[in-house]
Amino acid sequence: MNTPLRRVGLTMLAMVVLLLANATYIQVVKAEDYSEDNRNQRALLSEYSRERGQIVTQHGGTILSQSSKTDDRLQYLRTYRNGPMYAPVTGYYSWRYGADGIEAAENDILTGEDDRLIVRRLSDIITGRDPRGGHVQVTIDPKVQRTAYNAMVSHGYTGAVVAMKPDTGEILGMVSTPSYNPNNLAIHDGTKQEQAWSRWNCDPSAPSCDQNLPMVNRATEMTYPPGSTFKLIVTAAALENGMTPETPVESANEVVLPGTSGITLENYAGQYCPGSTLADALAYSCNTAFAKLADELGAQKLRETARAFGVGMDDLSIPLGVEESQLGPLDSSAVLYQSGIGQRDVALTPLQDALMSATIANGGVAMKPQLVKALLAPDLSTLESYEAEELTDEPALSEQNANLLREMMIASEANTSGPGKVPGLTIASKTGTAEHGADPKNTPPHAWYTAFAPAYDPKIAIAVIVESGGNHGLAATGGTVAAGIGRATINAALGAG
Predict the structure, then answer these.
(1) Across the chain, which distance is largest between two alpha carbons, in Å?
(2) CA–CA dist 181, 80 (Å, integer)
(3) pLDDT, tens digit, 9 for 90 and up, residues 175-200
(4) Distance separating alpha carbons of residues 405 and 402, to the nearest angstrom
(5) Average pLDDT, the chain
(6) Which of the four pLDDT bands, split at 50, 70 and 90, describes residue 421?
(7) Domains, the chain, ordered by start
(8) Of the residues 65, 94, 179, 228, which is catalytic?
(9) Is 289:278 a contact under the CB 8 Å cutoff?
(10) Is the separation of the CB atoms in 373 and 58 below 8 Å?
(11) Helix, strand or coil, per DSSP, at residue 315
């Protein structure tokens, strides 16, 4: 063979090798990336050729999300019943913008791609049946969700409500307002999808933008200063470290922050605490007592107790991701004073605030919050059921101290205003009025209410936050703004009132 022919042969061989390498790279190395790329029309059409499974409630079997047959290129349309009410739970399923919420977290079950459904898929191929996805059963109680949502929306409040079973961690209600309608993202009209997405995900300064960020799940994705609701953790730390409800505490109307040039921290409205014990301080929410108490306990003890309640966990999943709650640096006495009343750098999600009350209600044991009760096959047989699981290795506080704290919360509820109190129903609660913003003294505070009931046989624990005082302005308090919503939610769960 002469030299030119040999060169041509080697060149062709190199090209064949490169072609094989490229095909291998595309079909093996990058196959999954291309398959999951939302620009891949073949994958999209394949996914929409199967009936996606339903999202249903454990209580009453209410269908929250389902798919129906269409006559267009995308063979199934996803629809949501009471879309805005349940959007924080279901999320959305969009051919253009992907998925969120349970639609994303349990996508493999809903599409039928989960390995546990492989026998079903093979059976469909053999018998010629239309392939279908499995179903997701969520822990939500529709009457709890509906009551909490309507209470928030009827007042035009921005905020969140979370309700859960203390002994199992099952989430009975998860509301975030204002909300959005996932049907507008599921529709097959791309222009309408884009209009909705642009309105809800935009520059807040734009004239057409919904500045309330309705697609943010405030229950799990946002943290807030918890205000006086955080005093429950400080009290738990005090009880676990040898104090009792009768332990004397500070009762002055104000204290000077250590290490500062006369900066003071005051009780609400500058009042003296009506009592001088730890029980009095929680019942009347005396800031000066808890400021000094936090400093006396110190950063380590506060962190240990908070951690046992779930604060600081960065991997909590329900299975939706949950933003980490935190205490901040706690690196000086002045910081501890402010942190002891739930201010400074303390930041909790509403889910975490509900978990505080649920833990106390459950004898001091924190249970892992859970939004999914069971995963079901297309024929409704159970693939997996979720059992109650303790959140941490050690209790947040002993059962004896949890019972003491319950009594102190009952006394707090007796001093809390607002509607919804039902004769014969004992609620254990704590309110919070949290300053925030660049000018906190002139910014309406966040209003909090966290509670559980019935106090001696707890069936539900809740947390409510109303951002920036709702419609009460600077006069807003947890009692006047949030407590009524919390009690209405409790009453709905228990069939009271």
Answers:
(1) 107
(2) 8
(3) 999 999 999 999 998 899 999 998 89
(4) 5
(5) 90
(6) very high
(7) 51-126+180-213 (3.90.1310.10), 227-372+390-494 (3.40.710.10)
(8) 228
(9) yes
(10) yes
(11) coil
Q: Name residues whose C-beta falls within 8 Å of residue 240's C-beta, 6 or more positions apart in sequence.
A: 305, 397, 398, 401
Residue carrying structure tokens 């303390």: 346
Question: Which amino acid, 71?
Answer: D
The yes-or-no answer on residue 46 being catalytic is no
Share of the chain above pLDDT 70, in %: 91
Element (H, E) at 69: strand 63-69
**398: closest CA among 240, 264, 284?**
240
Tens-place pLDDT, residues 123-134: 555 655 566 889
Q: Which two tokens stand for residue 312?
A: 């600081």
3-state helix, strand and coil shares in percent for the chain, rounded to the nearest 5 = 40, 20, 40
Res. 355 pLDDT band, cuts 50 70 90: very high
Is the Cβ–Cβ distance between 89 and 203 less than 8 Å?
no
As a whole number, mean pLDDT of residues 350-355 equals 98
Residue 274 CA to residue 276 CA, distance in Å, equals 7
Structure token digits, residue 367: 């249970």
231-240 and 299-308 helices cross at what angle (nearest 10)? 110
At 432 the three-state DSSP class reads strand
CA dist list (Å): 276 to 166, 272, 285, 288, 432: 31, 10, 12, 11, 20
